[in-house]
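Side project, low priority. Logging it here so it doesn't get lost.
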Amino acid sequence: MSQLANDPVFQAYIASVVVLSLNVLGLASATAVTRTSAAEVINPEDKRLNASATVVYDEGSDGTQRHRRAHRNALENIPIFMITGLLLVMVGTSLTVAASIFGVFTVARILHSICYVKGIQPFRTVAFAIGVTAQVTLLGFLVYGVFFG
C-alpha cells in the first residue's frame, strides 16, 4: 500500500475524494441543521426529541428541501466519479491529466453545492455542466487507457 500511497496520481485522487466526501457530509449536516431550525423531523418517533416539531417525511421548509436536493444531487454524481477516478488511477495516466480532471470535477461539485443551496442561477447549471464534462472526459481517458493505450 505504501507504494500506492506515494504515487502522485493516487495522491491527487485521494485529495479529491477527501474534499468531495467532506462536501457530501457537509450537505447532510446542513440538511439536519436546517431541519432542526425549522422544527422539522422526518420520522414520527423523532418527535420524542422535539415535541413541537412537525413530521415532514419528504417535505419541509424551502431551506431543508434545498439542502436535501443538493445532497441528493451530490450522491448521484460523486460516487460515479470516485469509482471511475480510482479505475483511471489503476489503468494509469499522467499526473497532469489526473490532477486536471480531478481538480476540475471537485471544484465544479463544490461550486454546484454552494450555488444549489444559495439558489444561484445560471451558475448552478454551469457548475453542473462543468462537472459532467469532467466526468465524461475522465471516462474518455479511461476507455482510451484500457482499449487503446
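Brief comment: The first helix runs from residue 2 to 5.
Revisit when time allows.
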